[in-house]
Amino acid sequence: MKKFLICCLMAATLFGMEAFADNKNKTTRTVVFASDIDCDHCAKKIMDNVPVLGKGVEDVQVDVPTKRITVVYNPSKTDEATLVKGFAKLKVKAEPVREEKKK
Description:
4-stranded antiparallel beta sheet, 4 strands, Alpha-Beta Plaits, alpha+beta
């Protein structure tokens, strides 16, 4: 009976550590890009080719009227420069939008 309880305790501890490690690695970053898209066809081209943008891309939202593309990605797998290169492969010019600091 003691061995069974010890095994259960060890399993629970290991499971808890694994769950903590998974949450630690799931941080995401969101970046907004200003782009040269001007039609729904351009937006569809981006949405149909999300894997081309880079590994770790979790979500992409395209807003044609404002020419903005919002990308949620895992920074341990990709970065903004890689995303810009991915857009270039799709023949879409995109640059990260930097927010101005409010005084």
